[in-house]
Amino acid sequence: MLDKNLANDVLTAAMSTGGAFAEIFVEETARNVISLINNTVEKSRSGIDYGVGIRIFDGTNAVYAYTNDTDRDSLLAVAKEAAKAVKTSTPSTIKGLSILNFTKISPMGIPYNTVPRKQIVDMLKQAGLAAYATSKEITQLTSMYRDTLTNVLICNTEGIWAEDTRNYTRMWIDAVASSGDDKQTMFKSKGGQMGFEAYEGHDFIAWGREAAEGAVKMLHAKYAPGGKYPVIVSKGEGAVLLHEACGHSLEAEAVAKKATEFADKIGQKVARDIVTVVDDGTIPGGKWGSINIDDEGHLPQKNVLVENGILKGFLVDKLNGLRLNLSPTGSARRESYRYAPTSRMTNTYIEGGTSSFDEIISATEFGLFAKAIGGGSVDEATGEFNFSVDEAYMIRNGKLAEPVRGASLIGKGSEVMANIDMLGNDFELAGEGSCGAASGWVPTSEGQPTTRVSEMTVGGRSEE
Amino acid sequence: MDLKNFKDKLFTAAQAAGLEEYELYCKRKVAFEVSIFEGEIDEYKNERSFGVCFRGKVNGKMGYAFSEKIDDGVIAFLVESVKQNASIIEDEEEEFIYPGDATYPEVVCYNPKTNEIPTDAKIEAAIKMERATLDVDEKVDNVPYCALDNTEVEVYIANSKGLDVGYKSNRICGVVEAQVEGEDEQVKTAYDGYDGLDFTKFDPVAIGQSAAKKALAMLGASPVPSAKYPVVFEAKAASEMLETWVGAFSAEKAHKGFSILAGKLNEKIAADCVTIIDDPLLAGQEATVPFDSEGVASRTKTVIENGTFKTFLHNTKTARKEGIPSTGNGFKTDLEMPIEIAATNFYIKPGTQSHDDLIKTMGDGIVISVVEGLHSGANETSGDFSLSATGFLVEEGKIARPVDQITISGNFFTMLKDIQAVGSNLNFKLGNDTNNAASPSIYIKSLDIAGS
To answer: What does the pLDDT profile of chain A (464 residues) look like in tens digits?
Structure first.
């Protein structure tokens, strides 16, 4: 992707004013997006992102520059301009570049460009027809297909030369059920970090039907009552709770700035004994959040963040590792060449427990079962987070009761982690998440067993 | 890169490949950003980017392609991709290539002085902003985010119908986040910023002090009991609410059944005190442009007038369907995106009461200063929302104490009708280059609040 001699010259130019470390990130991404409205193909686009990012460490700070113009003169000019901003002179050498070999853990069976667009459209339309057929109350439908194939080169003054390929494919449908002006939606997604074989054996008819059934169910549901009470979060995608309550707050970017409630808590009890939290980028088989190599050329790791309730570690990138005197954990990621990398999540999960789903429900006198989760966000410094629930059920007298709609759950991360009091034996790692932070949007996945939090604030409504 | 030469070669190839009509959209961006931490430059970033997007019609259907890789193969790639993508389009409504307008308005969206600010002056301003934040009070113990960025964007659009237009815009933006710690290790954060064309109007000290004071005002916050309360949204929070539902005013969404405003033209959809304007001609705002992404000349439009719904926002496709002229709202929200519909500077016309007047009028209720979770807890189609929020409890017309860990729930379209009064403090700060929604403080009859 870049001539080795040119790479050496660019790194040399970048280090010419005393930088401590320099890195080049080259990215070329091919992308296709097809969108359907009401089961009719509306828009289709294809294209290429392409650029080079040059990073220089100025002591424990960084200079970052990027450009799409990758000819020799342009790259050297960009490197020299960036080098001018370096203030601290650190004696350092540039090591010879040697190829890093590593395992590609996510497969690419059927390349995306071998699948005719019409075939993709037919699959989505099959799901759409099934959604419409489920109920007359399904009035609108949005569906989409997206694939990205990325080639990157990471090389740096520590001698790393790593070339990687990343590929993601995803489809989703959003069914809208209406009754007058009242509308409810249900979103379903399917994909994988693999070739088009991600969809092999996927039942598009059942998928479409489930989206429709969910939307209709919510249309006829009452609002959840607002207040503070126990919440049982579903296995799998329910772990958006973990992601927002805890995950972001353990990224070294926030820790280095003391802008997270967990900054000083290594070695302390942050949750009950039953809780073990892991971030693992090494899970093979096309898991959405897995990586072959991080965006600094480090191998991914299985990082145990919380072990039996004790906070053990953070997710660390190179720069924040220098600031905190911690080793990188293979967690440096970025959305594209437009961003410098920083510490991010991969596949983040709570390990399974021992209770059955039924035991957890029956142990709850009154509460909310959050079955399908939307997204969320967090302010790491205060720990205050939120996430939305797309499909939920009340729990009354230890039994699942009526469906309810429209709830957001909020809380303070450290409090919620400490209030996880039951974990199911039904662990699941869920699908295709998109996580946004300082270094842009990166693909992540979440996992957990059925999880009970003894108390959370539920943003419900009273009936009109 | 010789743009004219590239365009000519591309158009020749498009013609030869049988594209009926076609358009090239180019965007160049130069940006500088510096972020400060503990008095030092934490990150220093330079950006230079250029990309092209090409759309073309085959058998009346439009396909799109884009590329940031401008090499020998790019023209063939763009033409072939456009053909492939056009071949699967089924939308019966035709998308149009616009020949352009005879004249375009002069707009203020570029200040040459902004490009002349020395880098050191920018760095110094950012450092000052951090320092001013910390200096307000010893409880301000951290500034997790303090950055200044300066961007310039150039857009060029040319098509087979003879359109050949371009414009330049630039901007300077400074944002700081203050972190404070009070009793019992309670941590609160708040941010403030400046964005505009004029570096001389950026007062880093005032911005820093404002962020710190907002965060300090939240110390001691706790929830309120769950109930329905009258609410005054602070201007920034009201702006973010409005931005979330701008899509409902899109003619495209209405035509496809995704807007509950469909069929409601000339009906009362908001309270009498609500007038909403979409104005791409406002001087110096973030979405100020001389023409939209189709090359349709910008013009101001009244979307809601004293509560009555006057017009949807259109592009040429939706306008043609209704036999009216485009409202100039055909935008791409990013280089690679197709032409859709977006608002420009979209704001609620200010009233006469100050924010404090609104609180006095409300008497007892809640002021909402921050809402979170808009990207997930808000349904764009139905208007339903359930959001995390913070603010203040108001008793007898005065702020009593700060409030946190609450949710607010309701329906945006119901809320429009329940607006009791609109403040005079229209706030355009820290917006977007499309769908740049802004509002003064607004007083709402009642919303569901869940807390303790």
So the answer is: 899 999 999 999 999 999 999 999 999 999 999 999 999 999 999 999 999 999 999 999 999 999 999 999 999 999 999 999 998 888 888 999 999 999 988 889 999 999 999 999 999 999 999 999 999 999 999 999 999 999 999 999 999 999 999 999 999 999 999 998 888 999 999 999 999 999 999 999 999 999 999 999 999 999 888 889 999 999 999 999 999 999 999 999 999 999 999 999 999 999 999 999 999 999 998 999 999 999 999 999 999 999 999 999 999 999 999 999 999 999 999 999 999 999 999 999 999 999 999 999 999 999 999 999 888 899 999 999 998 898 999 999 999 999 998 788 999 999 999 999 999 999 999 989 999 999 999 999 999 999 999 999 998 776 55
Of the CA atoms within 13 Å of residue B108, those in its CB half-sphere come to 8
Nearest C-alpha of chain B: how many angstroms from A342? 12
Distance from CA of A406 to the nearest CA of B (A): 6
Under 8 Å CB-to-CB from A273, ≥6 apart: which residues?
A: A308, A309
Q: What range does the domain containing A261 cover?
A: 227-459
Q: Do A215 and A250 lie in a common domain? A: no
**Nearest-CB residue to A459 (from B88, B337, B409):** B409
How many angstroms separate the CA atoms of B387 and A388, rounded?
Answer: 8
A28, A44, A386: residue with CB nearest B85 = A44
B68 with A27: CB under 8 angstroms? no
Count of other CB atoms within 10 angstroms of residue B60: 13
Residue A10 lies in a domain: no
| A208 shares a domain with A234 | no
Using DSSP's 3-state secondary structure scheme, residue B84 falls into helix
Shortest CA distance to B331 belongs to which of B293, B364, B275?
B293
**What CATH number is associated with residue A199?**
3.30.2290.10
For residue B63, what is the enclosing H or E element? Answer: strand B61-67
Q: Tell whether pTM > 0.80.
A: yes
Buried b (16+ CB within 10 A) or exposed e, B237-250: bbbbbbbbbbbbbb
Q: Does B219 touch chain A (CB under 8 A)?
A: no
Same domain, A259 and A381: yes
Give chain A's domain count.
Answer: 2
My answer on whether A321 and A386 are in the same domain is yes
Q: Is residue A291 part of a domain?
A: yes
Do the Cβ atoms of A406 and B386 come within 8 Å?
A: yes
Select from A38, A40, A44 the residue whose CB has the most chain B CBs within 10 Å, as the one to mutate to test that interface: A44
Which residues in A lie closer than 8 A to residue B260 (C-beta atoms)?
181, 183
Q: Are residues A179 and A238 in the same domain?
A: no
Residue B105, min C-alpha distance to chain A (Å)? 31
Of A69, A385, A406, the CB nearest to B384: A406
The C-alpha atoms of residue A184 and residue A405 are separated, in whole angstroms, by 9
Does residue A186 sit in the same domain as residue A332? no
B400-439 residues touching A, CB cutoff 8 A: 404-410, 413
Contacts of A51 in chain B (CB under 8 A): 49, 68
Q: Is the Cβ of B94 closer than 8 Å to some Cβ of chain A?
A: no
Distance of CA A91 to the CA centre of its chain: 38
Which among B409, B414, B445 is the top mutation candidate for probing chain A, defined by the most A β-carbons within 10 Å of its own β-carbon? B409
Helices within A149-259 (DSSP H only)? 204-219, 240-242, 252-256
Q: Is B387 touching A (CB cutoff 8 A)?
A: yes
DSSP structural state of residue B291: B
Inter-chain contact A67–B68, Cβ cutoff 8 Å? no
Minimal Cβ distance to A181: which of B43, B258, B260 = B260
Q: Specify the CATH class of B112-154+162-216 in words.
A: alpha beta
What is the interface pTM, i.e. ipTM, of the complex?
0.94
